[in-house]
Amino acid sequence: MAFFHRVSAMSRQAELMNWLDIGRVSNPDGGKDILLARNERGARIDWRTGEVWLMNPKVAEPFADFLAVERWLTMRDMPAADKPAAAAPAPVEPEAAPEPGPVRDTLPAFQQKVDACLAKAEGGQELLETKQAFEAGSEPYLEASTELSKTALELEVSPAMVATFHISAFAALAETAGADKLERVAASLHAAARQIRASVAA
Question: Is residue 159 helix, strand or coil?
């Protein structure tokens, strides 16, 4: 039964990240795997192990969960010059005393990095303007956006990952009708913050 519990957890995680359940496909070893889609992306959850397989783009190895999928997609889509920058601090001045630990961004600096990652994505200027307009016009969205950035900063999740969560939230707009659109998008960001905490605690 443990496998089925894990599959259910992966399905809930996928739903929080706006992956849509689009059907079932036979597994070569029996049973039915879950098929999911988001925009042009395709994924499959193995019904036995709960492992996540990316089908579009096709990746040869499985992922542990959808957070790992998001990290891989973010790194794949990021310009090569940006990939190592945040992870490899290099001492420039030999005379500078080493810090007791890694220097952590302030919240405003972290949020600026999130905005910079959004601006570099496909349709980036429009994404950035959408985020800024939502934050200016919706208190629930501003609160959710701030909570997500605080959580990511505290648990050392990259600004690029936070930008991905914003993009996923915007994608949910197309499927939401009525006057509560911004509240639904804000709820998606709150869910992303909870997902980060759950992933680190697991």
Answer: helix
Residue pLDDT, tens place only, 3-12: 557 888 888 8
pLDDT digits (tens, 9 = 90+) for 51-103: 999 888 888 899 988 888 888 888 877 665 555 454 455 555 555 555 555 56
- Give the C-alpha distances (Å, rounded to integers) separating 123 from 50, 128, 189: 33, 9, 20
| CB within 8 Å of 33: residues ≥ 6 apart | 24, 25, 26, 27, 44, 45, 46, 47
Tokens of residue 142, six digits? 């501003």
Euclidean distance between CA atoms 135 and 28, whole angstroms: 47
**What is the Cα–Cα distance from 164 to 156, expressed in whole angstroms?**
15
- Look at residues 82, 86, 84, 57 and name the one whose alpha carbon lies nearest to residue 69: 57
Mean pLDDT across 123-131: 79
- Tokens 């952590």 -> residue: 104
Q: How many CA atoms lie within 13 A of 38 on its CB side?
A: 22
Backbone φ/ψ region at 39: left (φ over 0), alpha (ψ -120 to 50), beta: left
* The model's pTM: 0.49
**Residue 17 and residue 71 in contact, taking contact as beta carbons nearer than 8 Å:** no
What average pLDDT does the chain have? 79
Q: List Cα–Cα distances, 165 to 22, 26, 148, in angstroms.
A: 21, 31, 9
